[in-house]
Amino acid sequence: MSKPQAPRKVGDKEALAVATQIRGSAQKLNLVAGLIRGRKAGDALNILAFSKKAMAVDARKVLASAIANAENNHNLDVDALVVAEASVGKSITMKRFATRGRGKSTRILKPFSRLRIVVREQEEA
């Protein structure tokens, strides 16, 4: 007697990849995610590969993982994949302290973000 299988979090023609701890603020990561929303998967990979934004490196890894999940786990056609969703949220925040003059200290916040990318197989019309 095992537990029943959990229902899928996305549709039948969709695949998902999530990165839960990307070092950087959600605001900066959302700028990169906005570049690829609604685009074809191959085009989105090229955009991220040649972007000057530092967060594009991690976003490209997550997108590549979503494409691999679609191909290997769900038997979807890689050439017909479109980035259906690229949502960004806050994760943990590390708190550190920096010493300042006259015996005082300042709080340094080091935020982490999460990125959820859903790719969908779209029929050529």
Describe this structure in words.
The protein has 125 residues and is an alpha+beta fold. It contains three helices and three strands, in the order βαααββ. The chain has helices at residues 26-36, 41-49, 56-72, and strands at 14-23, 81-99, 105-121. Strand 2 (81-99) and strand 3 (105-121) form a beta hairpin. Helix 2 runs antiparallel to helix 3 (56-72).
Main beta-sheet strand count, sense and barrel state: 3 strands, antiparallel
Principal-axis shape equals flat
Average of pLDDT? 96
Structural class: alpha+beta
Radius of gyration: 18 Å
Give the key terms.
flat, alpha+beta, 37% strand, 125 residues, 3 strands, three-stranded antiparallel sheet, 3 helices
Fold blueprint:
Elements: E1 14-23, H1 26-36, H2 41-49, H3 56-72, E2 81-99, E3 105-121
Antiparallel strand pairs: 1-3, 2-3
Helix pairs in contact: 2-3
Write a concise synopsis of the structure shown.
The protein has helices spanning 26-36, 41-49, 56-72, and strands at residues 14-23, 81-99, 105-121. With 125 residues, it is α+β, with helices and mostly antiparallel strands. The longest helix has 17 residues, at 56-72.
